[in-house]
Amino acid sequence: MAKKLWGGRFKKEIDKDFFEFQKSIHYDYKLATYDIFHSMIHISALVYTKVLTVEEANKLELELLAILKQIKEGKFKYNPASEDIHTEIQNRLEAKFKNTALKLHSFRSRNDQVVFDEKYYCVHQGLEIGKLISQVFVSLGALSAEFKDNFFIGYTHTRRAQVIKFSNYILSFNRMLERDLNRLENFCKNIEIFIGSGALAGSFIKGEHYDKAIKEFIRKFSGDFPCKISLTKNSLDNVSNRDFIIEFLSILCILQMHLSRMAEDFILFSSREFNYLDLPEEFCTGSSYMPHKKNPDFLELVRGYTGKIYGNLFSILTTMKGLPLTYNRDMQLDKEPLFSSIEIIKKELGILADFIPGIKLNEDVIEKVLEDESLYATELAEYLVGKGVPFRKAHEIIGRLVRFAEDKNLKLKDMVDDILKDFSPHLSKKEISKIFSPAFAVKTKRSLDL
Fold first, then answer.
1. Where are any strands of DSSP class E within 167-212?
2. Angle between helical axes of 85-96 and 32-48 (0-180°, round to 10)
3. Mean of the pLDDT values across residues 375-400?
4. Residue 383: in which H helix or E strand, if any?
5. In the prediction, which pLDDT does 221 show?
6. Is 124 annotated as catalytic?
7. What Å distances lie between residue 356 and 73, 258, 262, 360, CA to CA?
């Protein structure tokens, strides 16, 4: 069993099963980079406090940089017997610089380290997710441009409603993702990372020493430093705070909801019953029993993972709802839901950026549906408004006309003027033929994404 950061007051060895149950190294190793950053700042502060000499600090920093290099190169391997990532890094330093490394944990606690690490992690992951969203933007924009002249069918209540441009339809998803990106950017910009909370009551290290250490760290790692960092304002709140994880997962839940809605639309419109879209087959699977099947499995999994993403948020909300101040071990369980949601979202966005360009329109099918005269009923009512008929009256007139055509099994385009005049003197076969056109219907509407 690896050396622990605690244990002096205990006479008995920790129960092996309990140790395995309570350790977190198998998932919190993801925080290694950020834990090193915390140590870098703390080392400088210890120099100013005269706990470490400059020579000792340089030795520890060089070893931490060597570990950081391993992480960036994908060569970092943790000891499964370590309790957590904080212990893992401390033990590595102690193996090389015994007495010097023992000084490193002076005036700090894992309670302070972990909230620092998690905040830093969330910001970096938020920026990564933002880049992936931007790639999906590009794919949606390319699909929109490829079919920029194509018309499509807009729905409300899953019933045919009005004619729209396919580009307008596709770019509506870009608008959703744009809001998600703005939320992520605001989160990353506004989050504050604190240091110096100790276990809960603050640190023995003077604030001015931490301030100098922070400035020094920022100078060294400006490229890895996307957010604010400062001396803790309230140490009790800081070590017990997981609001930032809840906020971050809330943003990811909204993003996932948008991805799920997009997936559902593409599933629906690619089904045989609609057949408007043809999906790229390299992202579909077949059936082990039915040879004809082309199943939209990627989209279904996106839709299915929404429950997992939502559940991760509620898991942490439930964990935090009744915890007394300050840190409690329950809070260790915040990491797996956080890591899980981030990993799922990143994989989905990465695949989606490649998936979208492969979507094709079944133009013949869509053109046939665009012959449905009910799609132009609203435009016909608006035409009467232009002739001075109050909208409520125009709405009633066209409603009765559509019902008459249904009852008589007639097409409005085929009705003679004498019948049309019975409903309104402004109606004529010539005007209806003009209005019942996808191009006319779209032209009369205003949308910036057209």
1. 192-195
2. 60
3. 96
4. helix 377-386
5. 79
6. no
7. 31, 15, 11, 9
Fold (topology level) of 371-443: Ribonucleotide Reductase Protein R1; domain 1 (1.10.40)
Q: Which of the four pLDDT bands, split at 50, 70 and 90, describes residue 12?
A: confident
Question: Is the Cβ–Cβ distance between 195 and 229 less than 8 Å?
Answer: yes
Tokens representing residue 65 in the block: 């940089």
User: Could you give the CA distance from residue 336 to residue 317 in angstroms, rounded to a whole number?
Assistant: 14
Residue 264 sits at the vertex; the CA angle it makes with 294 and 315, to the nearest 5 degrees, is 115
Range 346-352 average pLDDT? 98
CA neighbor of 253 nearest in space, from 197, 184, 193: 184
Residue among 134, 287, 433, 447 flagged as catalytic = 287
Does the bond joining 285 to the residue before it have cis omega, within 30 degrees of 0?
no
Kindly report whether the global pTM for this prediction surpasses the value 0.85. yes
The arithmetic mean of pLDDT across residues 103-115, rounded, is: 96
Residue 209 has φ and ψ, to the nearest 5°, of -70, -40
Helices (H) and strands (E) in the chain, counts: 19, 6
CATH of 16-106, one of 2.40.160.20, 1.10.1670.10, 3.10.450.50, 1.10.275.10: 1.10.275.10
Catalytic residue selected from 157, 222, 288, 292: 157
Clarify whether 157 is annotated catalytic: yes
Give pLDDT tens digits for 189-210.
999 999 999 999 999 999 999 9
